[in-house]
Amino acid sequence: MKSLWKEITIGNMNLPHRLAMAPMTRSRALADGTPSDLSPEYYGQRASLGLLISEGTQPSEDGQGYLNTPGIYTKAHIQGWKKVSDRVHQEGGHLFIQLMHVGRISHPDNMPHHRQAVAPSAVAPGEQIFTADGMKDVPVPRELRTEEIKDVVDEFRKAAAAAIEAGADGVEVHGANGYLIHQFLGENSNVRTDEYGGSVENRARFAIEVIKAVVDEIGADKVGFRVSPGAPLGGVNEGVQIDQVYVYLVSELDKLSLAYLHIMHLGNESLLGKIRSVWSNPLLVNRAGRHIEDISTDIDNNIADMAPIGAWALANPDIVERLKKGAPLNEPDRSTFYGGDAKGYIDYPFLDK
Asked: What is the pLDDT at residue 319?
């Protein structure tokens, strides 16, 4: 694992190693989307990971899909996140807030305005979602009018500005996992006939417009982007042109000199190699189902520059120390992943405790 401990510069950050904390939904925000008083402790405990990418954070009321996820579009949200960023910085870490608009992966019962979700097209994902009344079918969303799309782009821009006001070091725009930006990329989730649908270039247009707006607002060195090529999450399928979709998108984003590109990788090695070849800046690769002993393999083989970790970071706030010492790891308690209180959130033991 020697390559893990080499320093690296990401955007305007000098990081001590090649690990990072991947974004993980925890559903512990207050009902209005303000991070709870437990959040500064949760993130602060994990600051030794260097770069902490926050849980998905909605840029607007329309962007919320799940109960008790945080927002970054009100003064209260900004104040709540300021406590988090201050604590992370006190502990020597850096914080990127992930901007996540869920699009159609929502339910009126989970949204503050209780309206129909918006999406590229009026196509339901064919999935269920947890609500206060239990699991329910995700309803058919409302197709965004062409003239509305610029307003959604502006929501991302304003949210990025709010994240910087809250003291974050930057933002990661979530273009993966079946959510809004990924829905625009999907062949089955985007059946539009205007300039945002049809061709590869049209389906990538929304993602590129969002990133350009965010870069214009806060600077490219404070912006990352996440993709998940081929991930079936949310019912999205990019179709037979999947390679063209991502090579085109990444090539266009590369022109903007973002801080990093973050891939949730499901095993398409050929496409990963193509993305690596057209991307000039740091590449973060998070392999699904990766064993902890293989954490440095992609870095060793020059496939990736950093290796974000999810559940292992959740269960081991001092995982950097544990890996360096070869110490045993705490096992993640999946029953406490989503919602609840301090249990399974800030009570995982440290080595010295």
From this structure: 97
Q: Tell me which of 3.40.50.410, 3.60.20.10, 3.40.50.720, 3.20.20.70 is the CATH number of domain 2-336.
A: 3.20.20.70
Structure tokens given for 147: 């003239």
Handedness of CA 80, 59, 239, 142 (dihedral sign): positive
Q: How many CB atoms neighbour CB 126 within 10 A?
A: 9
**What does the alpha-carbon distance between residue 133 and residue 267 come to, in Å, rounded to a whole number?**
36
Give the tens place of pLDDT for each residue, 165-200.
Answer: 999 999 999 999 999 999 999 999 999 999 999 999
Q: How far is CA 311 from CA 42, 179, 266, 308, in A?
A: 13, 21, 16, 10
Q: Which long-range contacts (CB under 8 A, 24 or more apart) does 239-242 make?
A: 239/186, 239/187, 239/188, 241/187, 241/200, 242/268, 242/271
Which DSSP category does 124 fall into?
-
Please state, in angstroms and as integers, the Cα–Cα distance from residue 114 to each residue in 77, 176, 194, following that order: 20, 24, 28
pTM of the entire predicted model: 0.98
Instruction: Dump pLDDT digits (tens) for 13-32.
Output: 999 999 999 999 999 999 99
Which token pair is 279? Answer: 């991307």
DSSP letters along 181-227, please? HHHHH-TTT----STTSSSHHHHHHHHHHHHHHHHHHH-GGGEEEEE
Q: List the catalytic residue out of 179, 196, 248, 345.
A: 179
Instruction: Kindly calculate the radius of gyration of the chain based on its CA atoms and give it in whole angstroms.
Output: 19
The first and second tokens of residue 167, run together, are: 């003291």
Specify whether 179 is catalytic: yes
